[in-house]
Design brief:
The chain has three domains: 68 residues, RNA-binding S4 domain (Structural Genomics Hypothetical 15.5 Kd Protein In mrcA-pckA Intergenic Region, Chain A, Roll); 96 residues, Pseudouridine synthase (2-Layer Sandwich), CATH 3.30.2350; 130 residues, Pseudouridine synthase. It has 322 residues and is an alpha+beta fold. It starts with a strand and ends in a 6-residue tail after the last helix. Strand 5 and strand 6 form a beta hairpin. Helices cover 20% and strands 28% of the residues.
């Protein structure tokens, strides 16, 4: 018999969801069978799959060892001895990390485990702020993601409560994200709003822009502002009013100013003289503007966090200060 003591990180979810995470070898049919046979109990009593767990509950599983002893792939964070996490801000609920260009946030099709979330989990585990055994179904998780070659702020939730709140606030557009980019040319006008429809091509891993709505396309809106220009390059700040795949890259290319280093939406011949082969794009600023009750995260309302050290700004516009 195994017991799981429910903490605040595991509370609020249905029992069947909890079991799906903690005992993945237990099928749905077997779960319902063992519920009927009282081999799965809550606090020593018969229960239902729809029961919502609360802190203090004890989940008791009278199941064969084979459900628990099957070989499992070790968690990636346990293999990281020196976590690479550049902390912008941290408290008991969240961690804001400055992701380096070239690092993936989650495992991609290449299947590697050297990911931002693995390094964040290793950092929290080694610092003693996260104990995996204390929350059977929860692990620190990312609330947003950015492309491999884009750097900048990524939000990690350290508690299940923070993850639920932030996911809701992101969906309702209560977080403001600003990006810095270096583009070829000088945007005309110097600032403005780009608004059209964006459709993602999963086969080509690329997006196309359309002036009218077409099947599969979504509204895409970017506000941009030129901060400085030097020679054939400009430093531009972009604010995402919608969060679509490759939105800034496609939008800036659409006005004749592709991002420096972007071979997908630009032209590599223009990038080659600079030796840049990854887009010069950085999620440098994050602001919280809550319009609804954010519960335990209400203290973040009105706060802005920025990355001051953006490599391509120092390289191409050293006189400009963020």
């Amino acid at each position: 018999m195994k017991e799981y003591h429910i903490t605040s990180n595991d509370s609020g979810q249905r029992l069947n969801k909890f079991l799906g995470k903690t005992v993945p070898l237990l099928s749905g049919g077997q779960m319902h069978k063992y519920l009927r046979l009282k081999r799965i109990k809550i606090n020593g009593k018969r229960t239902e799959a729809s029961y919502k767990l609360i802190a203090g509950d004890v989940v008791q599983l009278y199941l064969n060892d084979s459900y628990f002893d099957a070989p499992q792939e070790e968690d990636a964070y346990r293999h990281i001895s020196h976590p690479r996490v550049r902390v912008v801000y941290e408290d008991s609920h969240i961690l804001l990390a400055d992701k380096a260009p070239g690092m993936v946030v989650h495992a991609d099709e290449r299947g590697g485990t050297d990911t931002l979330i693995a390094h964040i989990q290793a950092y929290l585990y080694q610092s003693g702020t996260w104990e995996p055994s204390a929350a059977a179904s929860f692990a620190p998780a990312l609330c947003n993601r950015i492309d491999r070659n884009t750097g900048g702020i990524v939000i990690a939730a350290k508690t299940a409560e923070a993850l639920r709140i932030l996911n809701d606030r992101i969906k309702s557009r209560e977080l403001e994200k600003r990006y810095l980019c270096v583009v070829h040319g000088r945007p005309q006008p110097a600032e403005g709003l780009i608004e059209n429809y964006l459709r993602r091509d999963e086969t080509r891993k690329q997006v196309t822009l359309h002036s009218t709505r077409v099947p599969g396309a979504k509204t895409a809106r970017t506000r941009y502002r030129t901060l400085a220009s030097s020679g054939r390059l400009s430093l531009v700040e972009c604010e995402l009013l919608t969060g679509r795949t490759h939105q800034i890259r496609a939008h800036m290319a659409s006005i004749g100013c592709p991002l420096l280093g972007d071979g997908k939406y630009g032209v590599n011949e223009r990038n080659r003289p600079y030796g840049e082969f990854g887009q010069a794009l950085y999620a440098y600023s994050l602001s919280f503007h809550f319009q609804t009750d954010a519960g335990a995260l209400s203290y973040l309302d009105g706060k802005t966090f920025t990355v001051q050290d953006v490599p391509f700004v120092q390289k191409y516009f050293p006189e400009y200060h963020l």
